[in-house]
Amino acid sequence: MSYFITFEGIEGVGKSTQCQLLAKKLQDTLKKNVVRTREPGGTELGEALREVLLSPEVPPMSEMSELLLMFAARAEHLARVIKPALANGNIVLCDRFTDASFAYQGGGRGVDHKQIENLENLVQGSFTPDMTILLDMDVELGLARAAARSNKDRFESEKAQFFQRVRAAYLHRAEAQPKRFVTINANNSAEDIGHQIYTAVCEKFKW
Predict the structure, then answer these.
(1) CATH of the domain at 122
(2) Whole-angstrom Cα distance, residue 60 to residue 75?
(3) How many domains does the chain have?
(4) What are the tens digits of pLDDT across the range 21-53?
(5) Contact 69, 115 (CB under 8 A)
(6) How far apart are the first and last CA of the chain?
(7) What is the phi/psi pair of residue 36, to 5°?
(8) Which of 17, 92, 97, 114 lies at a C-alpha separation of 20 to 30 Å from 128?
(9) pLDDT tens digit string along 153-180?
(10) Of the candidates 116, 83, 86, which has an alpha carbon nearest to the alpha carbon of residue 102?
């Protein structure tokens, strides 16, 4: 069976690390075929759009332009990577997906959620992740961790209030969809978080 698992959370929560750890665990322990990818990105076009969306040197863009670029990258990602990988029987792990649009462009930027839903339906139809792992952390700690690892990108340069809204949107979606979401405290050690994620995934899919 193929499954689509996504990782979500604000800056600095360790999504990329945990995605990598879970992939290794599934491959080494359960002998699963795993494809890791990310959004925005995952394809040649998606990575080019990622540069535009994240670069602090790109002139300011409207909220709707940002949202449309995200979904353009997502449409290509689904067509070129995610759906083919699932069709071939792989477990697909993705660092961010559509929940990020609801959190960042919806919660953070204030774009009407109905407009995001319309794009979601257009690009994805009924396609949704089988499981979403939300790594939750205090905004101040997350931003401090993000700042320590690299130069700030366009999103990381936003003020703390922006990320408070993003975090609240994530938590609201997790509360509204408890069957899909697993929320994990990202303040713990990477090893402990990884163990919690692996246990939750195995329980979810009866592995």
Answers:
(1) 3.40.50.300
(2) 23
(3) 1
(4) 999 999 999 999 999 999 999 999 999 999 999
(5) no
(6) 11
(7) -105, 140
(8) 17
(9) 888 788 899 999 999 999 999 999 999 9
(10) 116
